[in-house]
Amino acid sequence: MPRVVVFDETGGPDVLRVVDEPVVEPAAGEVRVRIEAFAVNPLDQMVRAGQSPRPVPLPHARLGVEGTGVIDALGSGVTGLAVGDPVILGAIPDFETRGAYAEYTVLPADRVVPRPAGLEPVAAAALWVSYFTAYGALVDRAGMRPGDQVLITAASGGVGRAAIQIANQIGAVPIAVTRQSAKVESLLAAGAAAVIATDREDIGEATRRHTGGVGADIILDAVMGPGLAELSLAAKLGGTLATVGWLDPRPASFPANPSLTIYRYMSFADMVDPVTARRVAAFLAAGVRTGVLQPMVDRVFTLNDIVEAHRYLEKGTATGKIVVTP
Ligand SMILES: NC(=O)c1ccc[n+]([C@@H]2O[C@H](COP(=O)([O-])OP(=O)(O)OC[C@H]3O[C@@H](n4cnc5c(N)ncnc54)[C@H](OP(=O)(O)O)[C@@H]3O)[C@@H](O)[C@H]2O)c1
Fold first, then answer.
1. Which of 79, 227, 229, 324 has CB 3.0 to 4.6 Å from 253, enough for a Cys bridge?
2. Backbone angles phi and psi of 179, in degrees to 5
3. Which residues belong to any copy of the Enoyl reductase (ER) domain (predicted)?
């Protein structure tokens, strides 16, 4: 019988367990996907640990907001898709019941998008949430244009690396931020035009140096916390700050730059819109086709090692995505 990861109580990685469950038949308008790979995200860790932004229905909750596989069965009325089509699971806001941590899941047909040609399942599992978030925050909200100087915090992470590549695809100038000077070379190799290592330099002073004294046109921030006030001063007069994450759980300080336009970007709201999802999927497929977008995978686990995968995520040492294959 197919396997699925469930948890009956919130807590550490050990609450996750693999159980056998029969496949569910897709209802009208739904598709069943045989999952080939899924990614482990910081949100999964929060939900599992009981820090979900919304209540999780326990027991027997599922996890996993992104993955990839092939269409395995079609519900009645589904058009434009066929059994065997390779797809990406484009939006799983109801991950507690349809989560990607499984061998099969059932979704509304308009929540899958075509898998870009030439992208293997492991790389495809690392694409959607990170690249959609970086694209949505930088392009759709902040209006990133060619030539913009874009400061990217947590640049070593999934969203950060996606942002570097998307800035390059658009013709903007990505300036990566890391807390560790040991990561400078790998971020330059990942396409950053410049790297600021905050363990040895001041973020505001270094940004002005890299931008001819002007400051960043756009800041993409996945950290928040008390550093937000100082970070905001690295933007130019009239610049834009788009926040996507909260890697620093301490209370965020208010931006100290009064001329900033600030967006708080949540990708789920856009992912569930099929028109937006198709448009972003087309942009990402173009980037994969030209080779500018290359999802970086740090490590691959098997489904039976899901507890180990979460322990590894919690270490915080990954550079790129953690992916699981059934
Ligand atoms: N808004 C949305 O729709 C959306 C979508 C996806 C993700 N997110 C959120 O965005 C954030 C980033 O996600 P991700 O998948 O890119 O994470 P990730 O891959 O786990 O990012 C890890 C990187 O972030 C840096 N980092 C970790 N903790 C930090 C801290 N306390 N202060 C500063 N830097 C820190 C580290 O880089 P260095 O060691 O090099 O500094 C680390 O390599 C998370 O909070 C996630 O929940 C939001």
1. 229
2. -85, -10
3. 11-324
Helix H, strand E, coil C: the string for 310-322 is: HHHHHHCCCCCEE
pTM given for the model: 0.95
**Residue 320's Cα: distance from chain center in Å?**
10
53, pLDDT greater than 80: no
The answer, yes or no, to whether residue 91 has pLDDT greater than 90, is no
Are residues 202 and 237 located together in one domain of the fold? yes
Instruction: Residue 102: give the domain boundaries.
Output: 3-127+295-325
CATH code of the domain in which 134 resides: 3.40.50.720
Distances (CA, A) of 294 to 23, 116, 315: 33, 11, 24
High-pLDDT (> 90) share of the chain, %: 93
**Structure token digits, residue 29:** 């308008």
Residues near ligand 1 with C-beta < 6 Å?
A: 41-43, 129-130, 133, 154, 156-160, 178-180, 183, 222-223, 244-248, 265-267, 316
CA 159 / ligand 1 centre spacing (Å)? 7
Domains held by the chain: number: 2
Tell me: do 118 and 139 sit in the same domain.
Answer: no
> CA triplet 24, 30, 32: central angle to 5 degrees?
45
> Is 284 a member of any domain?
no
